[in-house]
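Design a sequence for this backbone.
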């Protein structure tokens, strides 16, 4: 079994995560409806993305995120931690979307709470997702 530090290192390498200076700063928080509209805009309606950026005064990090989302046409990877109940049925404990970007990788967290937080990826958040103990094993 891989140590938790080794697992974190390999996960960060696989996701191309480079630690950033602002480790936990969110650049954007979205409702489920707003996030879905962004994904739709990235895949089908680029004019919506321009409108969205205008509403956010073309802030630098938000513009980078939207550009990266547009380049991938709204498609993102998923990092998920599952647990299993007494009947061995999987349950999602935590999840994040991963968006490889031109400058750095983005994380979209809060998916299980339906409040989407966008931030530059860093090892601390990935560690929180993959390292929480499974309460159902007790």
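Sequence:
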């Amino acid at each position: 079994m891989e140590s938790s530090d080794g697992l974190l290192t390999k996960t960060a390498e696989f996701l191309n995560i480079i630690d950033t200076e602002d480790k936990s700063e969110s650049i954007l928080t979205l409702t489920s409806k707003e996030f879905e509209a962004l994904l739709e805009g990235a895949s089908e309606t680029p004019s919506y993305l321009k409108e969205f950026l205008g509403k956010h005064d073309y802030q630098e990090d938000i513009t980078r995120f939207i550009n990266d989302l547009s380049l991938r046409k709204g498609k993102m990877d998923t990092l998920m931690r599952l647990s299993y109940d007494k009947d061995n049925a999987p349950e999602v404990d935590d999840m994040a979307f991963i968006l490889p970007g031109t400058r750095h990788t983005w994380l979209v967290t809060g998916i299980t709470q339906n409040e989407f937080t966008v931030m530059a990826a860093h090892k601390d958040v990935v560690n929180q997702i993959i390292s929480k103990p499974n309460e159902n094993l007790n």
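The beta strands are 26-31, 77-84, 90-99, 106-109, 115-120.
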